[in-house]
Amino acid sequence: MNLLEGAKIILKTLHEQGYEAYIVGGYVRDYLLGVKSTDIDIATNAHPEVVATMFPKTILTGMKHGTVTVVIDKKQYEVTTFRTDGNYLDRRRPDQVTFVGDLQTDIKRRDFTINALALTIDEQVIDFVGGIEDIKKRIIRTVGNPYERFSEDALRMLRVFRFVSQLGFTVDEETLEAIKVNRELMNFISKERIIMEIAKLVLGKYFHDAIKLIFKTEFYKAVDFLNHGLDLLVNLNYTPTDFSEFLTFLAVTGNYEAIMNLPLANVIKKTVTDVYEMYSLEINEFTNPILFRQGLYVCLLTNKLNHYLRKLPDKQEEIKNQYENLPIKRVCDLAYKGSDLIIRYPERKGPWIGDMIDEICLKILLGELKNDYHEIEKYVEEKVKSE
Ligand code: ATP
Ligand code: MG
Questions:
Q1: Rounded to the nearest whole angstrom, what is the distance from the C-alpha of residue 1 to the centroid of ligand 1?
Q2: Residue 213: which domain range?
Q3: Domain final residue pick, 306, 326, 346
Q4: Nearest ligand to the C-alpha atom of residue 114
């Protein structure tokens, strides 16, 4: 069963119980564009507690906002009750949602005309806001007055750039003007929500168009970790391959502190810090010990930044090759291990063991010792004798 067929089962089930239900949001936009969508959102006038009882497999995570996740054939569908977003008192998130009875009210709360279409079970598109026309013209425009819509929820401004990056559309002039006027409202938006949109923006096919527009509108001034480096990026033929790579670019171009203040997973912060340090130390010789200690990913990123920002030759192939040929890639690759040392020298303490393992690794990486049980054993014995 494909994604759309699963959604139609949900629509049919709701219809049979006397409820209205439509496919809404991104799926309808992508349907008209002929691009593949990865998920389907459904809107209905059935209330969440009713939806929850109608399907054998549901996940109840967003009941408060009217959302029930329905699982059909292992795929998840978000089924949300028609609603308005109440008032935006804290300018962050709708503090309360109000369920409404009709599709049109639900459509009017949505961000952009291209995201405000609905699809019936017979695959008829319902359009209250001129979304079909805007998809044809490839233009991003807010539903209603952009100044008001960005004041309600400033994240929508960032979403404009996210959709530019994903779709390559242009932005309606008034919508763009409203961004210039309202950008400071981004201060009210949580870093978590900002990160989620930027992570999607980075992966867009039209990343460069989005960056150019963020620069031109000076929107970058409203997001602290974008404050520096975008001027470089607009002029470079450089595209990061993922979110952490984009973060490393931003870190080395002046936003390191701001990035460390973001709520990011520790592994991402570590990668950013490792690259930041290598780049700051101007390391461009990727020796075996450095490859071993930092890992391939960090070395490749440092090389990439050296190449694009310092105009040094690209060493990518060389680095990959050298990494493949490392005599050991991790401590556990050692033929003679810490546990062997502990058995052989039970009177020795932990730090000695750790230092000895480091020394053995270094010798092997420098080609001064073979990764062979007996050779290492002999090396350690001589070392102990000479103490
Ligand atoms: P994607 O394909 O990346 O999932 P999407 O259009 O489905 O894109 P989502 O962020 O998943 O985007 O949001 C789903 C729908 O919810 C949007 O199409 C839009 O109608 C509505 N929406 C999402 N965020 C907002 C917002 N901040 N303000 C108003 N409507 C929004
Ligand atoms: Mg979506």
A1: 25
A2: 144-222
A3: 326
A4: 1
What the block records as the tokens of 318 is: 């060389």
CB-based contacts of 212, cutoff 8 Å, min separation 6: 234
How many structural domains compose the chain? 4
Helix (H) or strand (E) holding 70: strand 67-72
Quote the tokens at residue 278. 């290598």
In one-letter notation, the amino acid at residue 295 is G
Q: State the closest ligand 1 atom to the C-alpha of 166, by its place in the atom list counted from 1.
A: 3
What tens digit of pLDDT does each residue of 216-227 get? 999 999 999 999
Which of 115, 141, 148, 206 to probe ligand 1 with, by most ligand atoms within 8 A of CB?
115
Same domain (yes/no): 148, 126: no
- In angstroms, what is the span from residue 203 Cα to ligand 2's centroid? 15
- Identity of residue 55: F
Residues 22 and 96 in one domain: yes
Radius of gyration of the chain (CA): 28
CA quadruple 144, 147, 151, 154: dihedral positive or negative?
positive
Decide: 92 and 188 in contact? Cβ < 8 Å. Answer: yes
Q: Give the ligand with the smallest distance to the CA of 43.
A: 1
pTM value is 0.93
Are both 60 and 21 inside the same structural domain?
A: yes
Atom of ligand 1 nearest to the CA of 159: 27
Q: Which amino acid is at 370?
A: K
Give the binding-site residues of ligand 1, using a 6 Å CB cut-off.
25-26, 41, 110-111, 115-116, 153, 155-156, 200
Name 320's Cβ contacts closer than 8 Å, sequence gap at least 6: 296, 300
Q: What are the φ/ψ torsions at residue 46 (nearest 5 degrees)?
A: -70, 140
Same domain, 187 and 121: no
The residue whose CA has the least distance to atom 15 of ligand 1 is 25
Residue-wise pLDDT tens digits, 190-243: 999 999 999 999 999 999 999 999 999 999 999 999 999 999 999 998 999 999
pLDDT tops 70 at residue 377:
yes
Same domain for 78 and 50: yes
